User: What shape does this take?
Amino acid sequence: MRLLHTSDWQIGKVFRFADDDILPVLQQERLEAIGRIGRLARAQGADCVVVAGDIYDHLRPSERTLRQPVERMRQFPDLRWHLIPGNHDFNERDGLWDRLVRTGLPDHIVPHLAHAPVPLDEGGTAWLLPAGLGHRHVIGDPTAWMEGAATPEGAIRVGLAHGSVRSFGEDAPGHNLLAIDRARQAGLSYLALGDWHGAVKIDARTWYSGTPEVDGFDVGGAGGGQALLVTLDGPRAEPVVELHVVGRFRWERAQAVLTCADDIAALEGRLRALDPDDPSRVLVWLAVSGALGLPDLEGWQARIVDGLGSALRLLRIDGAPGLAASSDDLEAFGPGGAVRAAAETLARQAGEGDDAARAIAAAALQRLYLLARDGAGGVA
Amino acid sequence: MILRGLEVEQVRRFGDAVRLTGLGPGINLLGAPNEFGKSTLLAALRAVFLLAHGSKAGPVAALQPYGGRGAPRIAVDFTLDGCDWRLEKRFMQRAFARLEGGSERLDGDAAEARLHDLLGVEAGRRGTEAMGLLNALWVTQGHSLVQPDFSDPARATIRSCLEADLDAMTGGDAAGRVLSRVDADLAVLVDKRDNPRGRFRAAKEGEQEAAAELARLDGRRQALEDDLSAMADLRRRLAHEDDADRREKERADLAEAGRVRDRLRDYDARYRTARAVRDHAAAQLVAVRQDLAARAAWESDLAIGVARIAELDAALGAAQAAQDAAAAAHAGRLEAVQVADAARRAAREALDRAAGRVERARLTHERREAAAALDRLEQAAQAVTRARAELDACAIDDARMGTIRKAERALDAARAAGRAQATTLDVALADGARGRLMLDGQALEDGRIVVTDNAVLRIEGIGTITIAPASHGRDALRAELVRAEEGLRRALEAAGCVDVAGAEAALAVRRRTELVFQAAQTVLGGLLAAAGQVPATATEAARQRLADLDVRIARIGEAEADGAAGDPLELLDAAREAMQVAEDAYEAAHRALLAPDGTMRRAADELARLRAEAQVARDGVAQLARDLEAARAVEADDALSARLAASLDAAGMAEQALLRIEETRPDGTEALADAAILRLERTIQDGHARLAALRQEMAAREARIRAAEGDGLDERIAAQERLRAAHAAEDAACEREVAILKCLRDAVAAAERAATERYLAPLARAVQPALSALFPRAVATVEPDFSISALSRRIDEPFATLSDGTREQIAVLARLGLADLMRARGRPAMLVLDDALTYADSGRLDRMFDILTEASGRMQILILTCRTELFTGLGARRLAVEPVGGQDRSAG
Assistant: This one.
């Protein structure tokens, strides 16, 4: 049998760094990903889609947010959608899943709220062992029950769970911690996991699908934006897993040290090359350092901040190139007079004191440069 | 620049051409009265240098002669940079301009352009004055008090003057533009008080609003979580309440409690029965014992009763004897009383008799007294009657006596009158002549004789002498005398008297009789006084009393017919003593009679008591005997003993039976069992109610939860957090922008200030010497607009607060400084002061003269004043206005 493994849709996610223009686009694209998953499953002849938790980002989404993914799935009545609660949308009593059930789900959308095997097909050749979360943090392994879960002899056992297979230090104690060899211990043909946002293969039978639409600059694994097409030829057969891209946006982190105009040009080229066809599919978080002269700072502003900032879907910049005002730069303010004196004062301030004060002084000098140039055409 | 001559024609008051003469280097003074035209000359000076000849605008039109149209013509001769120039302009009709100097001769606009070039001014707009520093230096009347207000070209001129001194002085304007741009940008973000505005303010407010909304949403989420937690709790409680096993157990417990109570009730019934049986047997036993005891008591009482009767009988005998003795004593005492009573009656009679005798004696004495009184009354009445009769017999009384005396006095008067008219004869008889002299027959004696009527004197031996007195009215006197004599006679007759002496005697008798009458009346009145009666009534009353006394005496006399002899009073006292003795005896006997009464009564009471007691004892004994007999008849003593034995057996058996039942007593009490049942029933009942309440509360909570979840709380919170972060970022960006702009502004402003201070220094230096001369140790604060804003002596004094004089002096010094500055830079400089320094005191004025004198070595100064006397100490050139062409119109 064939199934499509996905997880961590996190519908309704709010991106704090995004402005009012970008946020709806990012949110909308997460919904669009469902359609792409459905179409992929249909195209690949998958019987069903298993969603390994975190369908929603919030435990209490708005009614519209609650219904939107359902409506997307409704468009694929030929597929059965198996859903389990994750840590973001855990099955709280009187909570999200009760609401969802109350909305009247169509038959092909199946939330699995209990830890009990259910047949995946009418013939009962494949069984799903769902291990959704009942709390945000579950003490103990939510998949432990799978070992003792009885399924008909010879049936394909597919585990569906949400959690981490290892602890990430002391800050994240063993909540929702899954046994890394659960598939082997519980005799699973395949264990479909959710939680990690990048697609990761744990072992031959254990995979994280990752989120279908990347939602952050720091995602593990392959980085997300994919769904897994899993082919199970029998209970003993090793599953065949194919990664398919279903995401639209590309999220990149970049760093640059700028000291001259060439550096600026190189950075621009590098970022534009991320998606030369459609830079609007790219979100970049740029960490920049270095120092530039006054004309180069103007170039930085024009080519990177304003230019690339408009081309890319999002350009988030940490830091700014410092000011390295040369004597030549100061000459641009003329040989003397109050403006030149002010520029010298600011240049001096930009080189001393705390970082914040220096940055302000540098920015002021840059501004003075622009103003003096604009205001008195002869300067510079 | 040195002005050497000025001609005007057709300018305001100057119709014909006049020329200002006497101009030269140094100080030039035109002193002239008001209305002379000094200001007109200054206006002409400004016009020829600064107004375009072709203009017909207001300033030019204002130059035209008063009351008429004309073409003002002004010519001026001046030396500039060592070259002599003549400038002439006519305005309005046939306007022209001509500038001649050195080898140049220029007309019209070329002349104007050259002039501007020479003066360093710029053409003004549409008919206004050309603009430059000269405007500021040529002060018109009334403007000397204010500091020069520079036009842009003037400022540029000053600045160029100043900057020529500083090689690097460029960018001043650029700094100003930057500053204004920065200020404009800053004004978008913060207001004048540095409060955020625009998007900066919106960001701050947005952040606050978002934070508030977030707090509200967090509150709602907390409420939702509380609801969810409460809901979970409610479910647990519901499951607990709804637990079938628990409810079954509750029902079983209730049934068991019912059974426990039934057992307790059964036991209680049996116990009660056994206890009743035991109580009955015990009661039977008690009854038998009571019967036995009663019978023994009866027998005992019977014996006691018989003994008692015997005792009583003995006592009764003694009591009877005592009573008899008491009765005998009483009879004796009664007899004694009777004897004493008889004696007392006899004594009473004797006493009565003695008293009767004493009364009779008293009445007899009283009768005597009464008889005497009657006698006295009668005699007094008779005396009164007698005296009244004698009084009535007296004819004379005081009235009649008065009449008699009056008649006598009338007669005497008549007689005296007659004698007064009579002839008097004084007779002196010689010895032996006695009797020899005879008048009317009577011998005369020595002495005076009155002859009232014709008389015949006979003298013995001599003859007779008839005397006829020559009396006037002798007849009337005689008639009067007769009437008097008749009156007296009638009065006497009425009194029954013959003469006056008799009348006097009769009156004395009457007086005595009246005294007797009054005495008798007094006696009678004394007797009657007490009674207030008339004599007759009093007499009658006295007689009646006498009769009464006689009757009473007669009565006593009858009673005392056998009266004993002796003194009645003594007898009476004896009778009284006998009476007292008899009374005492009687009292004693009577007391004796009463005294023994207690003893007798006690004896009677005792007897009665004993009799009653004996009767009761006898009745009791009889009753006891009857009861005992009856009881024995019903139940013989043997039968009673048998019944006692049977009752003892029955009581023992009943007690045993009760003990056996008590041993079967179940645990607990019925009350406890009831309480347990009540509790269990209530538990079951409350369970239903709790279940209903839980379901109700759950429904309410669920509704709230659904409402909150439908709102998408978490999503809204995330959105709000994003909004807050966005506002915070915007706020930070604005903060940064403001910081950048302020940093820039501060830097540029500081630089500009430093530059300004640098290039203002020459101006300050130029002003300072004169300033120091006028205000020792004072320093002027020069502003970037070249005005002097304050004077620092000991403290800063803002210009506006200085006195008029000081302000005017500073304004003049500022102009002097500017002129110096221009002159030093090779620019045309010349100072005109119109009516200036009028506020200066003499000390200041002298110093100002010194300063002006000193400055006049470097530049020409023209002073126009109407107070020539003030400026006499200046040593100035005196100017005059003279008609051109020989007419003498000068002033001076």
